[in-house]
Design a protein that fits this description.
The complex is a heterodimer of chains A (330) and B (212). Chain A has 330 residues and is α/β, with parallel strands linked by helices. Chain A has 2 domains: 8-135 and 287-329, Rossmann fold, CATH 3.40.50; 136-285, 3-Layer(aba) Sandwich (Rossmann fold). Chain A has helices at residues 13-27, 55-66, 87-96, 111-117, 136-150, 168-179, 208-212, 236-243, 247-252, 273-276, 283-302, 315-329; strands at 44-49, 70-75, 101-106, 124-130, 157-161, 183-187, 203-205, 217-220, 258-260. In chain A, the strands form 2 sheets. In chain A, strands 7-6-5-8-9 form a 5-stranded parallel sheet. Chain A has a 4-stranded parallel sheet with strand order 2-1-3-4, sandwiched between helices. The longest helix of chain A is centred in the last third of the chain and has 20 residues, at 283-302. Chain A starts with 12 loop residues before the first helix and ends with a helix. Chain B has 212 residues and is α/β, with parallel strands linked by helices. The two termini of chain B are 12 Å apart. Chain B has a single domain, classed as Rossmann fold (3-Layer(aba) Sandwich), CATH 3.40.50. Chain B has 5 helices and 8 strands. Chain B has a 5-stranded parallel sheet, with helices on both faces. Chain B has a 3-stranded antiparallel sheet with strand order 1-8-7. In chain B, α2 crosses α3. The chains are: A alpha/beta (330), B alpha/beta (212). The A-B interface holds A 1, 18, 21-22, 25-26, 28, 32-34, 36-39, 67, 299-300, 303-306, 308-309, 311-312, 314 and B 83, 86-87, 91-96, 98-102, 132, 136-138, 200, 202.
């Protein structure tokens, strides 16, 4: 696996399957009396959150702690960022404190990429959501959840519904699920489909009802009002009527189909409360799986980093070390 | 369990380029049967005995030993696997490894006599990791160690309770265990450094002298 996890478009099928298989073993840890592994003892993981988050931050925190890493939480509110500190200076501070991995959420698309390639920090960078770009660990946990319920994703149909334009979750899922062989259909009002969606490896549609009949899973997205600076649809009620998953539409789904939502939900808006709480909704399970998937990501990124051992450095290790440095210098 | 092989034998092995088979299928079967009987004898039967294999080949060996013990005792002997990847002490120095399943029998391991089963006992670091992993799963009454081959060169104060074959080796040699569950045949063989390909240039210590 690469040294950073910035985008699910970077993940090869083999990389993605390695994360999912690793997470599968790590998930059994949740059933044990002692939910802790010594794997990352003495390593430091910094949660660098410039944007609000509940589940992603505590999920990464739980994942790092279960691997025995030391966790430093940093949120923009109450830090020097509110005094005007730049991303670069914040990064240099973290580097000086010896962070091994930086988990970053930022309102600007590309901030994690900047952090990883600028040479400011030597640590691994994990994108925990950047602007409207990507949220790769969410896609990985969605793929993990889908795989637990549907088996191999090859040829499975996944429908992603809602505010695709502002959704980094939709973007990451579109890439990752296609890499894993699933057929992805995006459903949204024309105003909420991004420009250039025809170049994505997915189908797109404006009509939810026609997309429901044959799908194996339907993933509802939150309408991101905080990112909406224009009128994208006439009214919340109209949106809910045309693109919300209500009881009537839920009844039309195939027997085995599951309902997903990355959270936080707007009950009654994109998803009806009784659908969200139904037996075929896996929304709570997604959160549980998130910890296992993030443990897998941290384990794979942080163990065996090339160049750390002066003993038994094989030629291949040296090469990847050099390419790592070259990458950092770019 | 016999005395160490004469030094000249292992010298010859080094000189020959092709792998030398040291245990064939029948030898492995006999060794596992003896181990099974020794476990039963030591623990006065199979009550509370749980066999846990260390992936990958230890798991198959644990299953086989459990079957032999079950045949002798007329009961089912619980067996499982314990993955030690996350407990290794060299994680920071090597690329990430894929995890193997940990499957503990339903009875758990609290108050059980756990017999760890591995194919080759070498530095002892794997067993150290397995002991740590066990501690996170439960609290066994006792832990014992069974291994098909003991090749010496311990780096930790660990010894096996049940050994299929003591195999004096030099550090540049490689011991390989093939089992039908994973490979084409049942066999244990020794490959010298030449056939093992580019081996790490570890200062091959005063190897022979180090063999206990």
């Amino acid at each position: 696996m690469k040294r950073h996890l910035l985008s699910s478009a970077d993940l090869s099928r083999a990389d993605a399957l390695q994360v999912l298989d690793t997470a599968e073993e790590l998930r059994t840890l949740a059933n044990r009396p002692i939910k802790k592994l010594p794997t990352l003892r003495g390593r430091t993981v910094v949660n660098l959150f410039f944007e609000d988050s509940t589940r992603t931050r505590i999920s990464f925190e739980a994942a790092a702690k279960r691997l025995s890493a030391d966790v430093i939480n940093f949120s923009a509110k109450g830090s020097s960022v509110s005094k005007g500190e730049s991303l670069k200076d914040t990064a240099l501070t973290l580097e000086a404190m010896g962070a091994d991995a930086v988990v970053i959420r930022h309102g600007s698309s590309g901030a994690p990429h900047r952090l990883a390639t600028s040479g400011w920090v030597r640590s691994s960078v994990v994108n925990a959501g950047d602007g409207t770009h990507e949220h790769p660990t969410q896609a990985l946990l969605d793929a993990f959840t889908l795989r637990r319920h549907l088996g191999d994703l090859d040829g499975r149909r996944v429908t992603i519904v809602g505010d695709v334009l502002h959704s980094r979750v939709a973007r990451s899922n579109a890439w990752l699920l296609s890499t894993l062989g699933a057929d992805v259909t995006l459903v949204a009002p024309p105003t909420l489909l991004p420009v250039g969606v025809e170049n994505w490896p997915v189908q797109s549609s404006y009509d939810l009802d026609s997309a429901l009949d044959k799908c194996d899973a339907v993933m509802m997205l939150r309408v991101q009002r905080e990112r909406m600076n224009a009128a994208f649809f006439p009214s919340a009620r109209e949106y809910s009527r045309r693109y919300g998953l209500d009881g009537r539409r839920f009844a039309r789904l195939p027997e085995h189909a599951i309902v997903m939502h990355p959270g936080p939900m707007n009950r009654g808006m994109e998803i009806a409360a009784d659908v969200a709480d139904s037996a075929r909704s896996v929304i709570v399970e997604q959160v549980t799986n998130g910890v296992a998937v993030r443990m897998a990501v941290l384990y794979l990124l942080l163990s065996g980093q090339p160049g750390e051992s002066e003993r038994d450095v094989a030629p291949t290790t040296r090469e990847s070390e050099l390419s790592g440095l070259a990458g950092a210098a770019r | 369990m016999g005395p160490s092989a004469p030094r000249s034998e292992s010298h010859q092995r080094q000189l020959s380029a092709s792998p030398v088979v040291v245990l064939d299928a029948a030898d492995i079967q006999r060794a596992l049967t003896r181990i099974a009987h020794e476990i039963l004898e030591r623990n006065r039967g199979s009550d509370d005995v749980v066999l846990l294999g260390i992936p990958t080949r230890g798991v198959a060996l644990a299953r086989r030993v459990a079957a032999i013990m079950g045949g002798v005792e007329g009961t089912d002997v619980p067996f499982g696997s314990i993955d030690i990847t996350m407990y290794r002490d060299d994680l920071r120095m090597r690329p990430a490894r894929t995890l193997e399943p940990t499957e503990v029998p339903a009875r758990g391991i609290d108050d059980a006599i756990v017999v760890l089963v591995d194919d080759v006992l070498f530095s002892g670091r794997t067993v150290r990791a397995a002991l740590d992993a066990l501690g996170d799963i439960g609290r066994p009454r006792a832990v014992q160690l069974a291994t098909l081959v003991d090749r010496g060169h311990r780096e930790l104060p660990i010894r096996a309770d049940f050994v299929g074959k003591n195999l004096p080796t030099s550090l540049v040699e490689r011991v390989e265990v093939n089992l039908l569950e994973y490979d084409e045949r049942d066999a244990v063989f020794i490959a010298s450094a030449a056939t093992a390909g580019a081996s790490p240039a570890s200062p091959a210590s005063p190897a022979e002298g180090a063999i206990r």
